[in-house]
């Protein structure tokens, strides 16, 4: 069996992310990917079984990178405010530095690949977050809410700000660039909403 060419694999990974983020999964084809990478389709099949395997493996790799970044310096036993702020900083830093990752992961979340990719990478992340939230509720630092509700309140504002940042304009169609000050200001409002 041929050894993996790491430069070629990185090109394939990046181009897969770019094509899925730009055109969606339904318009992604192995033939188009091979052409964009300047390689043969047969070369892709050395590394991946088929299109589904390729998308799944790239999504697992990128999802793992994202989760590693989110959990950097995060302690699930921290106070709710401290831990949530670490999450916000990690997410904002990583996703502002990697906008392609954000767009690609969003397309994966909205597709039939979401469950399979999530199962492969979410175990450690899920356990850390459950421990973090359960601890905050026990310490009466967090209003008890269904996971979907607290998650929406805790992170949707950050992701909305990031979307405006990627677009370069606000909801009022004015130029927009996300700043540390605005992240912190928005975070303070979120924390107030989630505290008992």
TrEMBL record:
The reply on keyword Zinc is no
Residues folding into a coiled coil are none
This protein is called what? TetR/AcrR family transcriptional regulator
Q: Which residues bind DNA?
A: 29-48
A GO molecular function held by the record: DNA binding
Q: Which SUPFAM superfamilies match?
A: Homeodomain-like (SSF46689)
UniProt-listed InterPro entries: Homeodomain-like_sf, HTH-type_Tx_Regulator, HTH_TetR
Q: Which PROSITE patterns match?
A: HTH_TETR_2
The UniProt keywords, alphabetically, are: DNA-binding
User: Native species of this protein?
Assistant: Chitinophaga varians
Q: Name one Pfam family in it.
A: TetR_N
Which residues are in the HTH tetR-type domain? 6-66
């Amino acid at each position: 069996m041929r050894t993996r060419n790491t430069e070629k694999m990185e090109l394939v990974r990046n181009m897969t992310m770019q094509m899925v983020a730009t055109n969606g999964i339904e318009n992604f084809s192995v033939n188009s990917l091979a052409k964009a990478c300047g390689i043969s389709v047969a070369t892709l099949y050395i590394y991946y079984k088929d299109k589904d395997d390729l998308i799944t493996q790239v999504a697992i790799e990128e999802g793992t990178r994202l989760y590693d970044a989110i959990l950097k310096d995060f302690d699930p036993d921290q106070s709710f405010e401290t831990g949530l702020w670490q999450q916000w900083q990690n997410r904002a830093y990583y996703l502002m530095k990697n906008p392609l990752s954000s767009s690609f992961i969003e397309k994966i979340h909205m597709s039939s690949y979401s469950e399979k990719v999530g199962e492969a990478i979410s175990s450690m992340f899920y356990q850390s977050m459950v421990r973090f939230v359960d601890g905050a509720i026990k310490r009466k630092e967090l209003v008890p809410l269904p996971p979907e509700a607290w998650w929406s309140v805790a992170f949707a504002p950050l992701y909305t700000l990031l979307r405006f940042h990627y677009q370069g304009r606000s909801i009022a169609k004015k130029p927009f660039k996300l700043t540390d000050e605005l992240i912190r200001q928005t975070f303070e409002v979120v924390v107030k909403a989630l505290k008992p």
